[in-house]
Amino acid sequence: MAIEDLDEVMEIERLSFVSPWTGRLFEETLGSSVSTSVVMEKGGSVVGYVILYAVKPEAHILNIAVHPKHRGKGYGAGLINYVLNHFKLQKVTEFFLEVREGNIGAIRLYRRYGFEKIGKRKKYYTETNEDAVVMRLSLPG
């Protein structure tokens, strides 16, 4: 992800989340030494992205989204595949994320990759009072 991608990323963000990240937050994340931000493109347009912080041996997936008109086509799985393969090579063995309890599709996707529910954060999403499911994937060292 580069600054030039932010208009398309922000559009996906606004279409995907009740409380979207601000452009400033994306810029700060891009400038962080522990952050990795990746876009997936099709035909020169951004169709999805993932942002995570990684400090060996852990990574925390902060944000992942696919444009609504491109969902159900494997792009989310492609982003997860990329993250897992890229960071395995860097000796990251623990992955964490939070997901809305009601986001069954995302939970199903994460479980397909071996993520397990390890907890719940009550009313984590303050705009809707929805709980977050905390998930972890542990890979062999």
TrEMBL record:
A molecular function GO annotation: protein-N-terminal-alanine acetyltransferase activity
Keyword Cytoplasm: yes
Catalyzed chemical reaction(s): N-terminal L-alanyl-[ribosomal protein bS18] + acetyl-CoA = N-terminal N(alpha)-acetyl-L-alanyl-[ribosomal protein bS18] + CoA + H(+)
UniProt keywords, alphabetically: Acyltransferase, Cytoplasm, Ribonucleoprotein, Ribosomal protein, Transferase
Superkingdom, taxonomy of origin: Bacteria
GO CC term, one of those recorded: ribosome
Top EC class for this record: transferase
Pfam families the record matches: Acetyltransf_1 (PF00583)
UniProt xrefs under SUPFAM superfamilies: Acyl-CoA N-acyltransferases (Nat)
Subcellular localization(s) per the UniProt record: Cytoplasm
EC number(s) recorded for this UniProt protein: 2.3.1.266
Domain N-acetyltransferase: 1-140
Record bears the keyword Ribonucleoprotein: yes
InterPro entries assigned: AcTrfase_RimI/Ard1, Acyl_CoA_acyltransferase, GNAT_dom, YpeA/RimI_acetyltransf
Function comment: Acetylates the N-terminal alanine of ribosomal protein bS18.
PANTHER family listed in its UniProt record: ACETYLTRANSFERASE (PTHR43420), ACETYLTRANSFERASE YPEA (PTHR43420:SF44)
UniProt family annotation: Belongs to the acetyltransferase family. RimI subfamily.
Record protein name field: [Ribosomal protein bS18]-alanine N-acetyltransferase
Protein's organism: Syntrophorhabdus aromaticivorans
